[in-house]
Amino acid sequence: MASEELVQKLQRRLQLEESRGAAEGEEVAKGEEVVAGGDEERSCLTASADAELSAKLCRRQDINEGAAQPRRAAVFNPYTEFKEFSRRQIKDMERMFRLYDSGRDGYIDLMELKLMMEKLGAPQTHLGLKNMIKEVDEDFDGKLSFREFLLIFHKAAAGELEEDSGLLTLAKLSEIDVSIEGVKGAKNFFEAKAQALSSASKFEAEIRAEQDERKREEEERKHRRAAFRELKSAFTQ
Predict the structure, then answer these.
(1) From residue 29, how far is each of 15, 25, 26, 35 by CA, in Å?
(2) Cβ atoms within 10 A of the Cβ of 88, count?
(3) Half-sphere exposure of 6 (CA within 13 A, CB side)
(4) How many CA atoms does the CB half-sphere of 15 hold within 13 Å?
(5) What value, to the nearest 5°, has the Cα angle with vertex 223 and ends 220 and 229?
(6) Which residues contact 199 (CB under 8 A, 6 or more apart)?
């Protein structure tokens, strides 16, 4: 009886040890799976980061080679980006840009630039027109946006255009009147305007001048209407 009881106890102990060993084995296996999973995840993240960096480097190379267009911010404020120009100058440039943007798509393409240069009395060859666009075409789309159009005058002001450049010819022959400033050439004109006032005070003064001009125009219209009514009443009496 005692021997049977001892045998049963030994069997139960063996079963407990076997079950404990199996549990420990499962924990070890799970730990190995977690480690392997972590290594695999880190490997995937590293591969993803490498791929993203590689894509950025490839895009930068394409932009440098002219095969891709750089992404530009959607918001463009000419008054803050081109502070060397007065509000009136920028408005004049905008009117000129819209005048020759016959397609009303916000761009001046090759044919529209051709018409512009002909109207200014300085016709260009097809190659000359393409070179003109290329000088300021930052996004490589083969046409001029309003920002790129302003760059023409910016480069003229900074003396960054060659004397035989079609863009310098455009700046000098543009419909923007420079003679009233008492200086010769677009470069001196823009330098004189840039040095006349500080950016902040100049901006405020120009706004006040525009408001005063609108008030004067409104007063003149009132006087003309009053004079017309007096003349009309004199004939009807």
Answers:
(1) 21, 6, 5, 10
(2) 14
(3) 3
(4) 6
(5) 140
(6) 83
DSSP state of 68: S
Ranges of each domain in the chain: 78-173, 182-221
Which pLDDT score, from 0 to 100, does residue 104 have?
A: 94
Q: What is the pTM of this model?
A: 0.49
CATH superfamily of 78-173: EF-hand (1.10.238.10)
pLDDT, tens digit, for every residue of 47-77? 555 666 666 666 666 666 665 555 555 588 9
3-state helix, strand, coil in the chain (%, to 5): 75, 0, 25
Instruction: Write the pLDDT tens digit of every residue in 16-32.
Output: 766 666 555 555 455 55
pLDDT of residue 175: 60
Two tokens, residue 53: 């960096």
